[in-house]
Amino acid sequence: MKIFAVLTIACLLPFALTLAEETPDTATTPVYAQPVLLTSVGQAADVLIMKGLSMRAGLSIRYCPQATADSLKGIKTLLLVAGGSSKGLGAAKIDPELEMDRVKALIKSAEKKKIPILVYHIGGEARRGALSDPFNQLAAEAGTELVVVSSGDKDGFFKEIAEDNGASYTQIEKQVDIVRVLKEQFGIE
Predict the structure, then answer these.
(1) Which residues 6+ apart lie within 8 Å of 103 measured at CB?
(2) Residue pair 8/163 in contact by the 8 Å Cβ criterion
(3) What are the structural domains of the chain?
(4) Do the Cβ atoms of 162 and 143 come closer than 8 Å?
(5) Residues of the chain with pLDDT > 70: what percent?
(6) How many CB atoms lie within 10 A of CB 7?
(7) pTM given for the model
(8) How would residue 29 be classed by pLDDT, with cut points 50, 70 and 90?
(9) What percent of the chain lies above the pLDDT cut of 90?
(10) 3-state helix, strand, coil in the chain (%, to 5)
(11) What does DSSP say about strands 77-82 and 36-41: parallel, antiparallel, or unpaired?
(12) DSSP state letter for 123
């Protein structure tokens, strides 16, 4: 009887170990690497809020609101904060077309270097509409993971882009939830 029990355990052990390795938490939760380049897509002030929350989460970030492909040297993750602002674009003395060109070149370079792109939309309804949505779409289509404040995705705009592109999608209720999400994404305790 003891021999039968030992043989049964020996036969089932590899199967049990395989199941343990494929748990949903470890199989589907990516952990991104640092340092992180944080930049705006649309020059909204939301990027400054994201900077503060990133620091609060303990991230090693390089903040560059007008980052270019040259800004990616030594970077392990690109974090885009999507949302256009006419006031922000005016203050930066950039027209929307130049901003789109800058971001397209940055995304292309990150993809070429195989740097994962995280996209955050934290401005809610205020960062949606005719000015913002082209920036939002550009960023969202490049993202490997999208994190969106629920008030900014009532119409499912971001969720649909994530599904179409096979990207992860996380919806949060408040900006303060970003600290928790960043800690999970980067494996910070």
Answers:
(1) 41, 80, 135, 138, 139
(2) no
(3) 30-186 (3.40.50)
(4) yes
(5) 84
(6) 10
(7) 0.83
(8) low
(9) 77
(10) 55, 15, 30
(11) parallel
(12) S
End-to-end CA distance of the chain: 47
> How large is the greatest C-alpha to C-alpha distance in the chain, in angstroms?
82
How crowded is residue 4: how many other Cβ atoms within 10 Å of its Cβ?
8
Residue 120: CB partners within 8 Å, gap ≥ 6?
50, 79, 80, 81, 82, 146, 147, 148, 178
Predicted confidence (pLDDT) per residue in 66-119, tens digit = 999 999 999 999 999 999 988 988 898 889 999 999 999 999 999 999 999 999
* Long-range contacts formed by 176-180: CB under 8 A, 24+ apart: 176/53, 178/50, 178/53, 178/57, 178/120, 178/122, 178/147, 179/53, 179/56, 179/57
CA distances from 5 to 1, 19, 52 (A): 6, 21, 57
